[in-house]
Amino acid sequence: MRVKSILRSSRTGLLAGVAATALVASGIAATAETIRWARVGDALTMDPHSQNEGPTHTLNHHIYETLVGRADDGSLTPRLATEWGISDDDETVWVFTIREGVKFHDGSEMTVEDVVFSLDRARTPPSGMAALHAAVEEVTAVDDTTVHVRMAGPAPLYVQNLTNTFIMSKAWAEANGVETSPNFAAGEEAYSVRNTNGTGPYMLVERDPEVRTVLQVFADHWDDAPAVSEIIYTPISEAATRVAALLSGEVDIVQDVPVQDIARLEQTQGIRVVRGPENRNIFFSYDMVSESLASSNAEGNPFASPEVREAMSLAIDRNAIQQVVMRGESQPSAAPLPPFVNGWTEEMHAFGDPDLARAGELMAEGGYPNGFSVQLDCPNDRYLNDEAICQALVGMLARININVDLNAQTRSLHFPLIENWETDFYMLGWGVPTFDSQYVFDFLVHSREGSYGAFNGARYSNPELDAKIESLATMTDLEARDAVIAEIWDQVMEDRIFLNVHNQVLAYAMRDGINLDVHPENQPRMTTVTFD
Amino acid sequence: MSQPLLSVRNLVVEFPTRRGILRALDHVSFDIAEGEVLGMVGESGAGKSLTGAAIIGLLEPPGRVASGEIWLRGERIDTLPPEKMRRIRGRRIGMVFQDPLTSLNPLYTVAEQLIETIRTHIDVSEKEARKRAVALLDRVGIPAAARRIDDYPHHFSGGMRQRVVIALALAAEPELVIADEPTTALDVSVQAQIIDVLKEICAERGASVMLITHDMGVIAETADRVAVLYAGRLAEIGPVRDVIQRAEHPYTAGLMGSIPTLTQTADRLTQIPGSMPRLNAIPQGCAFNPRCPQVFERCRIARPDLIAREGGRHVACWLYDKEASDV
Amino acid sequence: MIAFILRRLVQSVIVMLAVALVSFALFRFVGDPIASMVGQEVTLAERAEIREALGLNDPFIVQFWNFIARAATGDFGISYRLQQPVMELILSRLPATLELALVSGILAFAFGVGFGVYTALRRGSWVSGTIMTVSLIGVSLPTFLIGVLLIWVFAVELQWLPSFGRGETVYIGNWWRTGLLTESGRASLILPAITLGLYQMTLIMRLVRAEMLEVLRTDYIKFARARGLSNRAVHFGHALKNTLVPVITITGLQMGSIIAFSIITETVFQWPGVGALFIRSVQFVDVPVMAAYLMLIALVFVVINLIVDLLYYAVDPRLRVDRANAKS
Amino acid sequence: MTEFTPDESRPNALARAWDSDIAYSFRRSPLAIIAAVVSLIIILAAVFAPWIAPHDPFNPATLNLMDGFTPPMEPNAFTGNVYWLGTDNQGRDVFSTILFGARISLFVGFMAVLFAMVLGITLGLIAGYRGGWVDSLLMRVADVQLTFPSILLALLIFGVARGFIPPAYREAMAIWVLIVAIGLAEWVQYARVVRGATMVEKNKEYVQAARVIGAHPAKILLRHILPNVMGPVLVIATIGLALAIIAEATLSFLGVGVPPTQPSLGTLIRIGQGFLFSGEWWILLFPSITLLALALSVNLLGDWLRDALNPRLR
Question: What is the pTM of this model?
Answer without folding.
Answer: 0.82
